[in-house]
Amino acid sequence: MAAVTSVGETPAPTAASRPRGMHARRRRRLNIFRYVVFTVFGLFFLLPLLAMLRFSLEGSKLGTWSLTAWKEIASYQNTGIPPLLSAIEITLELAVITSVVTLVLLVPTMIWIRLRVQWLERTVEFLCTLPLTIPAIVLVVGVGPIYNRIQHYSLSALMLFWIYVILALPYAYRALAAGLGAIDVKTLSEAARSLGASWFTVMVRVISPNMRQGILNALLLTFALVLGEFTIAFLLLYEDVLQPELYNISRSTPNAGVIFSTSFAALLFAFVLLLILSYAGRRRRGRG
Amino acid sequence: MTSSSVTRTRDGAARAAVEVRLEGLSRHYGPVVALDHLDLTLQPGELIALLGPSGCGKTTTLRLLAGLEDADTGQITVAGRDITHVSAAKRDMGMVFQAYSLFPHMTVRQNVAFGLRLRRVGTADRDKRALEMLDLVGLSVQADRYPHQLSGGQQQRVALARALAIEPQVLLLDEPLSALDAKVRAQLRDEIRRIQLEVGITTLFVTHDQEEALAIADRVGVMKDGRLEQLASPTEVYSRPATSFVAEFVGLSNRLAGEVRGGEVIVRGCKLPLVEQDTPDGQVVALVRPEAVSLASRAPESGTGTGTGTGSGPLTGTVIAITFLGATSRVTVDLGDTRVMAQLPTSEASALSAGSRVVLAIRPDPVLVSADSHPAASAAGEDA
Q: Of chain A's two ends, which shows fewer C-beta atoms within 10 Å, N or C?
């Protein structure tokens, strides 16, 4: 039936045309908002990075360009502090050890809790996220006596992994919990068990491969945390890892270019790692 | 009956179908009794469907048999061997789950071969067997796909192939069709039965869908509150239900007030035989199947036939609803003090309309009576 419109009355837009017009306007506004947000945040993050990069490429005269600071990463050594390259090596080793220990500790524990003792899940989640709420200085005061004892046996900065594992727990836990939550752990494990798999096989060959994205994310977060950690290493007097080393260089050298080139390289490394891990995860999703 | 009978696999190898015995099986979850001293024997090569409402204990029974849970009391024997305390991994049972359970990171072929790999079967034999099993379920061309590339029905067929690949002694099916749409469900249901008969494996099938249970099982076990109410052939469960619960749960029943007198029950003037001949005289509620009720649009010439009423008698009423079910239709008739459902061929039902006056006739099938229920709710039960 045709709609009746009295004289002088504005006809109401048709049901079909009104939403389309509204949608188009709304979409346009949303797009503008999106670009503004993207640009502001892009500038917020990129400007300091670009400034770092520019500073690290500054030549001996103002306004000139030079790769000296980048070349110095491999050879830089100043009196009273260990070589920069060895600090980078130790930090990378520390990142690998921390990541491996965190995953070895958390992955089986979390799978086991999900499968067999689900009532413990909340408690473990609370314990794992607890380090996030404790300031680094408090942690250092707490673990100070323990590190005194550890340093009695070994002065290696690699011993920092004990506390780094604790620091990484909240991030790794959340990443792994997300990975675990994305699969039907109970059904998969029961299916594997009914086919004759032991609990170890269930964990290693059935559950872990399916939470690969979560494991990769946990790995990345742990790596990034170790690469950027300064406070605890510095306060526990481990000055031969990257961040305290950079701090010491900044205090002892008139040419700060090498600090910025090294920091930028560390950031770049974390970024490349993120790209690799997300690419690996995407390939997996595409396949499985 | 012997404890095992020999059937043949696709490759011609002899396989012994085994007897499964559950004796006095109980399981409690805190104060809730999930299973209450259940006794059940599956004959070699037999398919038993456990049917019942949610929480009746059917899935618990299956999980206890699979070893995924431990029984509080009781014993489970397979081919005479006590496996009550054997772990799930060593029970030699194939299981298909309600949820999709294929390993997402493995191809279809790898999924099917997984159990064989655990048994250290060589790569060539493993692949051959996996393809055989996929062929059995009609999916050999999908062997190199990943589970997410398959439909729900295909995934469940692969799960069936995976369960059978290890040549288990017993096949356990835990509502494998419930996540599928109606058409695929019916197809896969028939396929499961075909494969089960072909492989000749003793099978326990758990479902809440009575149509599924009645369609493919050798025997149907109807469960309630952790106990078996009846274990019999599908025909017997439907036509001679052992209890009023079974009568109401399996198919639809009209609940009509009647009186037992001399081994018969008189329902609105109709004399109907009893399932339980020794029912004492007295007032009861008779459970009458809708398909035992027929309708005529006008009063018959004489009311002498068994179970027919007169034009103005107690079996005369008004049609208030007609539900189209496909080949049949369900007609609800208001008799004034109660309502009765009749299931008729759609061709007959189409001659009726809401408001028509009809006369009911009740076929003299043996009926079950219940003394403890009120006839006010005239129709109960689930759709068949």
A: N
Contact residues for B327 (Cβ-Cβ < 8 A; gap 6+): B345, B346
113-172 in chain B: CB under 8 A from chain A: 114-115, 118-119, 146-148, 159, 162-163, 166, 172
Which segments of chain A are extended strands (E)? none
pLDDT of residue A287: 46
Higher pLDDT, residue A243 or B71: B71
Tell me, yes or no, if B354 comes closer than 8 A to chain A by beta carbon: no
Cα gap B116→B111, rounded to integer Å: 10
Instruction: Inform me whether the pLDDT recorded for B6 exceeds 50.
Output: no
Hey, is the C-beta of B90 within 8 angstroms of any chain A C-beta?
Answer: yes
**For residue B256, which of B238, B279, B272, B275 has the smallest C-alpha distance?**
B272
Domains of chain A from N-terminus onward: 79-287 (1.10.3720.10)
Residue B143 has phi, psi (to 5 degrees) of -55, -35
Compute the distance between CA of residue B187 and CA of residue B117 in angstroms, rounded to an integer: 30
Question: Which residues are within 8 A (CB) of B284 and not within 5 positions of it... i.e. 6 or more apart?
Answer: B257, B258, B259, B260, B265, B369, B370, B371
Question: Is the Cβ–Cβ distance between B15 and B196 less than 8 Å?
Answer: no
Query: Which chain B residues are Cβ-neighbours of A195 within 8 angstroms?
Result: 94, 114-115, 118, 162-163, 166
Tokens of B258: 């009647």
Compute the distance between CA of residue A151 and CA of residue A163 in angstroms, rounded to an integer: 13
Of B114, B171, B162, B101, nearest to B134 by C-alpha is: B162
Give the pLDDT band (50/70/90) at residue A282. Answer: low
Say how far apart CA A244 and CA A226 lie, in whole Å. Answer: 12
- What pLDDT does A20 receive? 61
Å between A193 CA and nearest CA of chain B: 5
Hey, is the C-beta of A121 within 8 angstroms of any chain B C-beta? no
The DSSP 8-state label assigned to residue A205 in this structure reads I
| Kind plus residue range of the DSSP H or E element containing A41 | helix A17-56
Interval B159-217: pLDDT, tens:
999 999 999 999 999 999 888 888 888 888 888 899 899 889 999 999 988 889 999 99
Which ipTM score applies to this complex? 0.79
Backbone angles phi, psi at A154, to 5 degrees: -145, 135
Dihedral Cα B177, B181, B184, B189, nearest 10 deg: 30
End-to-end CA distance of chain B: 32
B-chain residues near A288 (CB < 8 A): 104-106, 146-148
Write the secondary structure of B331-352 as one string of H (helix), E (strand) and C (coil): EEEECCCCEEEEEEEHHHHCCC
Lowest mean pLDDT among A58-67, B28-37, B63-72, B221-230: A58-67
User: Do residue A191 and residue B95 have CB atoms under 8 angstroms apart?
Assistant: yes
Q: Which two tokens stand for residue B87?
A: 């772990």
Instruction: Give the residues across from B317 on adjacent strands.
Output: B358
Q: Which residues contact B249 (CB under 8 A, 6 or more apart)?
A: B51, B52, B53, B210, B222, B224, B381, B382
Mutate to test the interface with A, among B90, B98, B114 (most CBs of A within 10 A): B114
Of A188, A209, A288, the CB nearest to B101: A188
Radius of gyration over alpha carbons of chain A, in Å? Answer: 27
Q: Which residues contact B351 (CB under 8 A, 6 or more apart)?
A: B297
